[in-house]
C-alpha cells in the first residue's frame, strides 16, 4: 500500500466521513508533516479527536495509526527535497538538544538494524564475497562514502577489488562490462535512491553475478535484484540521511571477512608496518 497510499486516499475520499475528510486532506496536502505527527497531534491540527485519527488508519486497512505513520514515513523518503527535510527535522527537534536527539536516534537505528537483519543472508554474503573471482563495489551520492569505506578496508584483505567510479552512466558500464557469474557485485543505495546504481545492479544481475544489496528496506528498488539483501536503518537526520547503521553493518562485514581471511591480513599488515616504519608514515611515540 505504501507506494499508492496517497492515491488510495484520493480515490476513497467520497466514502470518508466529514472528520475523516479533514484528516485525508491534511495528509494529501502535508504528508511530509503528517508522517512525523502522533495521532493526537494530527488530530489537533485538523480539529478531530485522537480516536478519530486511529479509526481513519483502521479504515485504510492498517492495524492502528503506527502502521499508517510507518508507511507515510517510508513513502516520503524518496520524495522529499533537501529543503523539506531541513524543515521537518527542525519541527521534530523543536527546542530540544540537537546533540542528544540525534545520537539517541542513531542508537535506535543500530538497535533496530540488529533486531531486523537476516543473519543467514549476512553469513551467505560473507561466504560469497570470500570466494568470488572479482568483487565490485558501487555506491553513488551519499552511499559513495560507504562504498569507499568498504573498498578501503577490503583492499587490505583482497587483491581482486574493483571500486566502480560513478563518473557517468557510460563509464559505469565500461568498468563492469566483463562481469560474470563468478563475481560478486556489492550495491549500496539509500533514499533518495540512485537510478544509476539501480540500472547497474540490474545489468550485474543479467550477467549472472551474485548481488549483495545493502539498502534500507525490502521496498528498496535494489531488493528485487538481490541474492543477499542486507538491510540497515536509514532515516532523516537533516538534509541528509543518517548513515550510522549502514556504516555499522559494513564494519560487521569487514570484521567477518577479516576473520575468514586472517592469514592474508596478518601477512599484509606485517609488510605494511615495516613500510610505514621505514617511511615514517605515523608520528613516533613521544
Descriptive account of the structure:
The structure is a single chain. The chain is of the alpha/beta class. It has helices spanning 5-11, 18-34, 39-46, 50-59, 65-76, 82-93, 98-116, 119-131, 143-154, 169-176, 195-206, 244-260, 262-278, and strands at residues 135-139, 161-163, 184-188, 210-215, 228-231. It has 2 domains: 2-76, Arc Repressor Mutant, subunit A (Orthogonal Bundle), CATH 1.10.10.10; 110-277, Glucose-6-phosphate isomerase like protein, domain 1 (Rossmann fold). The protein has a 5-stranded parallel β-sheet, sandwiched between helices. Helix 3 packs across helix 4 (50-59). The longest helix is centred in the middle third of the chain and has 19 residues, at 98-116. The model has no long low-confidence stretch (mean pLDDT 88).
Keywords:
elongated, 8% strand, Rossmann fold, alpha/beta, Arc Repressor Mutant, subunit A, 286 residues
Given the helix and strand composition, which structural class is it? alpha/beta
CATH hierarchy, class of the largest domain: Alpha Beta
Termini separation? 62 Å
**How many domain regions?**
2
| CA-based shape | elongated
**Which topology of the largest domain does CATH recognise?**
Rossmann fold
Helical stretch tally: 13
In the CATH hierarchy, the architecture of the largest domain is 3-Layer(aba) Sandwich
CATH level 4 superfamily of the largest domain: Glucose-6-phosphate isomerase like protein, domain 1
Q: What is the N-to-C succession of helices and strands?
A: HHHHHHHHEHEHEHEEHH
Determine the fraction of residues in helical runs and give it as a percent range: 55-70%
Mean of the pLDDT scores?
88
Approximately how much beta-strand content do the residues carry?
Answer: 5-15%
